[in-house]
Amino acid sequence: EARALERRFVTARPLFREATVVHAVSGVDLAVEEGETFAIVGESGCGKSTLARVLTRLIPASGGSVRYAGRDLGGLKPAQIRALRREVQFIFQDPFSSLNPRMTVGALIEEPLRIHRIGTGPERRARVAQLLERVGLPAQAAGRYPHEFSGGQRQRIGIARALASGPKVVVGDEPVSALDVSIQAQVVNLLADLKREFGLTLVIIAHDLAVIRHMADRVAVMYLGQIVELAPAADLFEVPRHPYTEALVSAIPLPDPGARRARARVAGELPDPTAPPAGCRFHPRCPYAIGRCRTDAPQLSPRDAGGRQVACHRAEELALAGLGSVAAAR
Ligand code: SF4
Ligand code: MG
Where is each ABC transporter domain found (predicted)? Predict the structure, then answer.
C-alpha cells in the first residue's frame, strides 16, 4: 500500500552547474490486494520502473509511505530489508544483464536460499532442480552459465531465482519486453501458472497493454509519474475512462491482421519529465483538453462502486457521451 508516494532524482548537470530534480513518481496512492495480479502500465519514462523499485524498497522513497503487511518500509534497517527480500522478490526487465555471468545457473538460483539460510546443501540443490523443472528447463542447466541460454530461457532462470525463497509477492518490471514476441506469451503464461500454483501476489509493470490484458485483475495507468486511471482490468479494456487509457487501449494490435479499426494513437512525444506540463500533465497531447486542463491539475477520484478511479476533469461528461462519439463530434 502506497500513500502520497514521491520519488525524486537529482541529476547534476555539470555544464550548467545546476541540479535538476526529476519527480519520477509524484503523489501516488495505491493498495495492492493479497493474491491479485496488479498491473502498472504506461509509456517508457512515465515512472513505472521507479514506482516498482520504491514499492519493493529496492530504492527508498523521497516522500510519502509504503506499507507492507502493516509495516512501514521507510524505517527498515538493512537487516530488515534483507528479511523483506525473502517475501518480496523482483524479476528484472533485462535477463541479459540481471544474472551474474560468472555464476552457474544452479548457483544463481541457490543464492537466495543461502542468503536466507534456507535448507541444507543437498536440500537446496534438490530445490534448485525442482525449480528448474517447474520453469521448463532441464536439471542439467544447473551446471551451465547464463550466456549458454536464450533470452526466454534466461528469463525463466530469473523467475526460478525469484521464486526460490518462497516469496509472497513477486514484482516483474517488464519481464517480457526484452523477449521476442513469439516467446512473450509463453513466459506470461508461465508467470500466470506459477502465480496460481504458489498463491502469489503479482505486480506486473508493462508498457504494452496486450501483455497484461489476460492476466491482470486490476490495472493502474501511469502518465508522467502519476496514476491517471485505476480500474478492474476487464472494465478498463472495455470502457476506458481516461483519454490516455483510451489511446493505449486502441493502440493494442488486433489479433486478426485483416481486421481494421480506428486507432487513436497518442499524438506527440512524452514531455520532458524534469518539467511536466502545468494543469493536467496530459493536456498537450489530449484531444479533449479544455481551458481548465491547462491550469488545474485533476485529482484521482475516490473509488466508485465498480472500484474505478480516474483523474480527468471531463471524465463524467466523456463517459456519458462515450469517448469515441465526442471525438467524432469534434
Ligand atoms: Fe484531457 Fe483535460 Fe482530462 Fe487531462 S483533464 S485528460 S487534458 S480532458
Ligand atoms: Mg522501465
Answer: 10-249
| Backbone angles phi and psi of 194, in degrees to 5 | -65, -35
Cα 96 to its chain centre, rounded Å, is 19
SS3 string of 307-327? CCEECCCCHHHHHHHCHHHHH
Task: Give me the interface pTM, i.e. the ipTM.
Answer: 0.96
CA of 282 to the centre of ligand 1 (A): 6
- pTM for the full predicted model: 0.88
Question: What is the grid cell recorded at 169?
Answer: 509477492
Please report the domains of the chain, with CATH numbers, ordered by start residue.
34-64+77-216 (3.40.50.300), 239-330 (no CATH)
* Nearest protein Cα to ligand 1, atom 6: 312
Half-sphere exposure of 35 (CA within 13 A, CB side): 3
- Asked whether 280 lines ligand 1 (CB < 6 A), one says yes
List pLDDT tens digits, range 175-196: 998 898 889 999 999 999 999 9
